[in-house]
Description:
The complex is a heterodimer.
Chain A: H1 5-12, E1 25-33, E2 43-51, H2 57-67, E3 87-90, E4 93-96, E5 111-114, E6 121-123, E7 126-127, H3 130-138, H4 159-164, H5 182-186, H6 193-203, H7 211-218, H8 232-236, H9 243-256
Parallel strand pairs in A: 1-5
Antiparallel strand pairs in A: 1-2, 3-4, 3-5, 6-7
Chain B: E1 2-11, H1 15-27, E2 30-34, E3 50-51, H2 62-72, H3 79-99, E4 113-121, E5 126-132, H4 138-153, E6 156-159, E7 161-171, E8 174-184, E9 190-200, H5 221-227, E10 233-234, E11 239-246, H6 256-259, E12 263-265, H7 273-276, H8 286-298, E13 310-313, H9 319-325, H10 327-337, E14 346-355, E15 359-360, E16 366-368, E17 374-380, E18 385-386, H11 398-418, H12 432-443, H13 450-464, H14 471-488, H15 502-526, H16 544-547, E19 549-557, E20 563-571
Helix pairs in contact in B: 1-4, 1-11, 2-3, 3-11, 5-15, 13-14, 13-15, 14-15
Amino acid sequence: MATPTLDKADAAGTPEPGFADSPYITATFRIRRFNPEVSAEAVWEDFQLEIDPKERVLDALHKIKWDHDGTLTFRRSCAHGICGSDAMRINGKNRLACKTLIKDINPAKPITVEPIKGLTVLKDLVVDMEPFFQAYRDVMPFLITKETNEPTRERLQTAEDRERFDDTTKCILCAACTSSCPVFWNDGQYFGPAAIVNAHRFIFDSRDDAGEQRLEILNDKDGVWRCRTTFNCTDACPRGIEVTKAIQEVKRALITRRF
Amino acid sequence: MKIHKYDTVIVGAGGAGMRAAIESTKRSRTAVLTKLYPTRSHTGAAQGGMAAALANVEEDNWEWHTFDTIKGGDYLVDQDAAEILAKEAIDAVLDLEKMGLPFNRTPDGTIDQRRFGGHSRNHGEAPVRRSCYAADRTGHMILQTLYQNCVKEGVEFFNEFYVLDQLITEVDGVKTSAGVVAYELATGEIHVFQAKAVIYASGGTGKFFKVTSNAHTLTGDGQAAVYRRGLPLEDMEFFQFHPTGIWRMGILLTEGARGEGGILRNKDGERFMEKYAPVMKDLASRDVVSRSIYTEIREGRGCGPEGDHVYLDLTHLPPEQLDAKLPDITEFARTYLGIEPYTDPIPIQPTAHYAMGGIPTNVQGEVLADNTTVVPGLYAAGEVACVSVHGANRLGTNSLLDINVFGRRAGIAAAQYSATVDHVELPEDPASLVVSQIERLRSSTGGERVADIRRELQETMDANVMVFRTEQTIKTAVEKIAELRERYLNVSVQDKGKRFNTDLLEAVELGNLLDLAEVMAVSALARKESRGGHYREDYPNRDDVNFMRHTMAYREVGDDGTESIRLDYKPVVQTRYQPMERKY
């Protein structure tokens, strides 16, 4: 049986490359602070921590909040990349704080942490998610069927038809994609990648009968044609969804009316 | 303070809350109060599947499922409830499919099914394929599908509203639910929701353990709210430790990994589950597997330099199968451990996972004030509740089932009830308890910190009331919890503001965890037997003569204000299955 890599490092008594004997390093977290109860201005604040670089950025935020400054405010819940609460801009890139290990983002330099862009900041790393969820609701994100009598058993769907929209079912609505999109930054009216991903999930579901309606919604001036194919969204997606490809497929479906 | 008036109020927007909301919104004016955005709820972290005897891929029936559930729960399950669970499972899965859930499919296009721990054909003969699944993100797909259908039905959500108190009014001497009091995170404002019916669906309380698969937000808020109002909590000593959490982190790696053929191995590479469960092997029930893992570790066959974990070995499975069936958990191993599961086994250890106990209800989701009396207008469903369909140990895939079956039942029952009654009067000054609690925490200058007390609580719970317990360890925990509760009176927060004060809410949550940890430890101390998830090394056998009964814990307040816990017991409902020795 093979040996896990962690044991290899431990057994050999050699630390992982790049780190000294102690697993702990000193890292600086440069956090964008904003609290309108205190000041109308946002400021950068530095926190120095002794921390194991194999820990998550979320662990660092918790250390700051729990041991240094209880006023630091952010959303989080599951802490392993499935609930979508803690999307933030870390070293200038949208990521989930709970899925980003400190060792992977060059802790030798100050690590910047700021709220995701394009949504109103309410306090520190907390933004107003309502416009994001409104765009989601606007694409009718639920199965619509024409059948008058529901089948008694499950609807049949081939494994291939199921596979067709598998990628876009992974979305956790964290907003990392939408808030990485330059079009969305400039025009909050744009539906944004996440809403299109969720429309895609139903347009390409063989059981759904409302693809045309959803396509018409996305044919709007603030719809899918605003996409400039910058691939920021695909890079940002913590679930590895090929967001830009999904948007392209929706565009193609609008032209060919085939899906 | 704002006052709102609804027919039905649902507390929590995970699977049970949203399943209830879909039913109650059609029938009554409903508000859902949730401390998280609905799609953040921890239902989304469930991976492996939802049990239902569809018999799509091999012979199966709901009677076998009922038996497995009762046996899995070590005969502490109320058998009438288990029968409902297994019977209604089939429609519950089909309902979700009709709502749009993208289940994996068989070559025939029907819903695919896979093996899971404790689920067997013909009363234990061999593992059976009963778990309906969507890759290893079944919970995610259930949460998304239910939210999508809430959007479709126009369910009214109050997001980031944190319910802190249950309002009770005595009507003709009967304790009756009058509504709830909530704290709005964004503004710090306090809201009173007057409602004819209240449904708790606020989830579990795993955060009193350190190594846990639970989200940071699972702090037993619903259980604590009703317990403080003198209502009982049932079977709180029964907590499930899932065998395969990521070593040290506790992140869940689904039992579906073993359902797909994964094997647990010790440091010698031995498939040790063959010794402990010759028939079901790695797919024995979770309590059995978790104890086996710790037995291996204690006897020196654990892995790593400290011998403190074992391996989940998937390396013999084809990479295509891992990619198709287990994409998320293999990604967790890569992200958090830097391990490639195609070629290397994954270090795992048992992780605190699920509360079998909770707010006692009957099969309509109605909350009980004692062994038989219903609290009019009060309902509970999901992990917060104890029906009891899980008894002393829940089977994997039965919780996603529970939230759908009993969430639906509670939603219908609550809405039907609220259609037949008027609002009861609110108690005088309904928000007073919450206002004083918040003010005390916000203005306190005491020297104790939330994080310190929580850390010590988690450490004592892990050390003393986890997989193995003795009178000595439980007493150590009880004493430590008492000390921490004392210190909690001097806790202060740094954030004194009103806006998004999560510092304050963590302090409130800690208070809930301390109350519930105490109930758990006291209940565990009194149960001098071993059954399911509750294993007493000093009483290693099940004792049906003295302990075939549910624990009911009540908070008592003396005339001088001192608090204590009074334990009572409730009979188990047995229908057709006589208790037998449990072997896998």
